[in-house]
Every structure is written in structure tokens, then in C-alpha cells.
């Protein structure tokens, strides 16, 4: 991959920068600006070199047409704020005459944010006409979204095939850091995998049991593993059709020398929206109860199993962290990992929107060795797959 330092003179040139502005929003306000803040080095480098900077991103999952609730317009101010108040102009579309006019009107060193790429079906389908229309807007392309680089979309692989292409600071950092910590990790190594379903992370689990010494499983997917071990999970979220798969994973893990660690107790309730819960061993969950978080005995067990571990990777929260009191397990575990990291006993890497939010809510994000901005791309990386967006930059 070519870095920004390898770009030619940029005065009078238009640089298309693919970023990830898919940030949490409520009532038109950005709730977490960390993804936006981490774009500053790339954007600042470009406009200070005299480039006309055109920023493009997706936001949410609109159904191939304009939808005000998925507009990037409210994010322009947050982007400007991250650039120390530098004005960020906004285009009401990402292709077409009005967009071309907005790009043409830019002066050297100015920044323009385009409207949501996914308002056009050509983005996710990587349609030739749409990729051509985007490419016609600029002279160079910069990919600064590792978090989206597992997708063969028009703004990821399509633009890299059509314009001289370079890796942004954030993307380069992600690749460098993950290679440093995960390609040849210091062992013993543990993985912590949470989230709701085994089905979304089956390939990941099968890959990890051959690479790590211990695999901690939490979240809803732990319920299916516990069911596979004969526990009555009441009304907990389970994937009954994957019980045999969970049993096979347990067997293969044993054959690979990987120890699987499951919750021994949990926070349960009979109503998902409940603000109260009871703590019970997993063997005593009631038939009308659902487990929504790990319990204190599990956390003690997890702490003991972490002793001696040198590298830990974490994807997916341990419970329904968005709904207190079921955020306690993820927050407590995040503080455990952070403490071990701060003591120099552990290299800790986390990735994925939900787990990153849980770590941020616990207030310990800066104490982790590295936190990736990526979710799906982080999972693909952990599976050992080369991301299509990275491969396109190397072509």
C-alpha cells in the first residue's frame, strides 16, 4: 500500500477520501465522536498540502433511496469540530451535477462532505456506472476506513481500481497495529467472544480454537453452548439448530488444546426491559427466565483464567450492555483487562462497535493496548482473511 507521504503535489487536485462516519446518533446529535476524531490526521494532512478534500461515507442501512433519518448532514458539524473548527461544506448528493458543481467550486485546502453513499444502490452492488460517477469527481483516492475494507463496494474497491490510490493514516495504523499484535502474538493467548449468535461468528470460532490457548464465550452465544452442555436456559436467546455445532466446537477445541470457558452464573429476568434482575447459577435458571449478563462468579472465574495470559483479543460484549443493569459484566471485565494492561502484564486488543462502546462506557478505553475502529473487518482479520479493500490498494 502506498502511504500519504507518497502522494504527488496536491495543490489544485481533488482527493476523494473514503471514511467511516457510521457513528451513533440521537436526535441529530453524534453520541460518540471517536471514529470522527481519528480521521483528523489524514484530512489535516491533505488540506494542509493544498488538496481539495472530498469526504465520502455510508451511514446506516437506507433502502437505496433518500431517507432523512440516514442523512450525513448533521455529521458535518461534528467533522468540522474534530478539525479544530475548519469549515466543512456539505453536498446534498454523492453523484450527479449538483455534486460535481459542489466539488468544482472548492478552493485549495477546503473540505466537502458528500451525502450518504448508500442512498444509491450502486454503492453496495459495486455497479460500474456508480463507481465511474464517483471516480469522475476526483484525481486521487484515499481509503481511510479499515472498518469497511472487508466490503467490495464501489467506494472501496471500485474507486481503488479507477484512481491512483493511497492508504490513509487511520487505515495504515490499523493494519500496522493488528499485524504487530495479532500476526505473531505473545503467548499464551486468549480470545473473548461475545455477541448474540454463534451463526454470525461460526467461522471466527473455528479459526480461533486453532490459534488461542483459551476461548472465553459470553453474550447470547454462550447460551447455546450452555444448552449444548445440558443446561436448561429457560427463555434465554439460544440457537437450537446450532447445538450440535456448539458441541463439535467444544470437541475440536479440546483436540486443539484450546480451553473453552463459559459462564457459571448469570443475571436473569423474566422481562427483557426489566430494570432489576436476580443472580443465579446457570444450572438454576427458571423456565420463564432469560440470562442477559454474566454473573459475579463468572467474572471471578474469568479473572482467574486470565492469569498468565499475555495477549487477549476481545470481540462482542458479555451481555445486553445497552440495558442496565445488564451492562455490569462487560464493564467489570473491561476494567479487569485494562488493569492487567496498565500493569504491563497483558497486551489487549479489542474491536467491534458494541464492545468498543462497552469499553468506552466503562471509561477504560485509553488503557487498552489497541482498540480497532472496525467490527466486521476486525472479524475478517481475525479469521485470517485478507480484506478486499486492502487488496485493492495493493493492486
Structural write-up:
With 395 residues, this protein is of the alpha/beta class. The chain folds into two domains: 4-171, Phosphoglycerate kinase, N-terminal domain (Rossmann fold), CATH 3.40.50.1260; 185-382, 3-Layer(aba) Sandwich (Rossmann fold), CATH 3.40.50. It has helices at residues 34-37, 40-48, 75-82, 97-104, 121-124, 128-135, 154-162, 169-183, 202-208, 219-228, 243-256, 296-306, 328-342, 353-362, 376-382, 388-394, and strands at residues 14-18, 25-26, 29-30, 52-56, 88-90, 111-113, 140-143, 165-167, 189-193, 214-217, 259-261, 265-269, 278-281, 290-294, 311-315, 347-351, 370-372. The chain is elongated and about 65 Å long. The protein starts with 13 loop residues before the first strand and ends with a helix.
Amino acid at each position: 500500500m502506498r502511504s500519504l507521504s507518497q502522494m504527488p503535489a496536491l495543490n489544485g487536485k481533488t482527493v476523494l477520501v473514503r471514511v467511516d462516519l457510521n457513528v451513533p446518533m440521537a436526535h441529530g446529535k453524534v453520541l460518540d465522536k471517536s471514529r470522527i476524531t481519528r480521521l483528523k490526521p489524514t484530512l489535516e494532512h491533505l488540506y494542509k498540502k493544498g488538496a481539495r478534500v472530498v469526504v465520502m461515507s455510508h451511514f446506516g442501512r437506507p433502502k437505496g433511496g433518500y431517507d432523512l433519518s440516514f442523512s450525513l448532514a448533521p455529521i458535518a458539524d461534528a467533522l468540522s469540530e474534530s478539525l479544530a473548527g475548519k469549515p466543512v461544506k456539505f453536498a446534498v448528493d454523492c453523484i450527479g451535477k449538483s455534486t460535481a458543481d459542489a466539488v468544482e467550486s472548492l478552493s485549495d485546502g477546503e473540505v466537502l462532505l458528500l451525502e450518504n453513499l448508500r442512498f444509491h444502490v450502486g454503492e453496495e452492488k459495486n455497479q460500474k456506472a456508480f463507481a465511474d460517477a464517483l471516480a469522475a469527481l476526483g484525481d486521487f483516492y484515499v481509503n481511510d476506513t479499515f472498518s469497511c475494507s472487508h466490503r467490495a463496494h464501489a467506494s472501496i474497491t471500485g474507486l481503488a481500481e479507477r484512481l491512483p490510490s493511497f492508504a490513509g493514516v487511520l487505515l495504515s495504523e490499523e493494519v500496522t497495529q493488528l499485524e504487530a499484535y495479532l500476526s505473531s502474538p505473545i503467548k499464551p493467548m486468549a480470545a473473548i467472544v461475545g455477541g448474540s449468535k454463534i451463526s454470525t461468528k461460526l467461522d471466527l470460532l473455528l479459526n480461533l480454537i486453532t490459534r488461542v490457548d483459551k476461548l472465553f464465550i459470553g453474550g447470547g452465544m454462550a447460551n447455546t453452548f450452555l444448552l449444548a452442555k445440558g443446561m436448561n436456559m429457560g427463555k434465554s436467546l439460544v440457537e437450537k439448530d446450532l447445538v450440535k455445532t456448539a458441541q463439535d466446537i467444544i470437541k475440536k477445541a479440546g483436540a486443539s488444546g484450546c480451553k473453552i470457558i463459559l459462564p457459571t452464573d448469570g443475571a436473569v429476568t423474566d422481562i427483557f426491559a426489566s430494570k432489576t434482575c436476580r443472580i443465579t447459577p446457570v444450572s438454576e435458571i427458571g423456565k420463564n427466565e432469560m440470562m442477559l449478563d454474566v454473573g459475579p462468579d463468572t467474572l471471578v472465574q474469568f479473572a482467574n483464567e486470565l492469569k498468565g495470559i499475555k495477549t487477549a483479543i476481545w470481540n462482542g460484549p458479555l451481555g445486553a450492555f445497552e440495558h442496565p443493569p445488564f451492562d455490569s459484566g462487560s464493564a467489570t471485565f473491561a476494567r479487569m483487562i485494562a488493569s492487567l494492561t496498565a500493569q504491563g502484564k497483558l497486551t489487549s486488543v479489542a474491536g467491534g462497535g458494541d464492545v468498543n462502546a462497552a469499553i468506552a462506557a466503562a471509561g477504560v478505553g485509553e488503557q487498552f493496548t489497541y482498540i480497532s475502529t472496525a467490527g466486521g473487518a476486525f472479524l475478517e482479520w481475525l479469521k485470517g482473511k485478507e480484506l478486499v479493500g486492502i487488496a485493492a490498494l495493493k493492486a
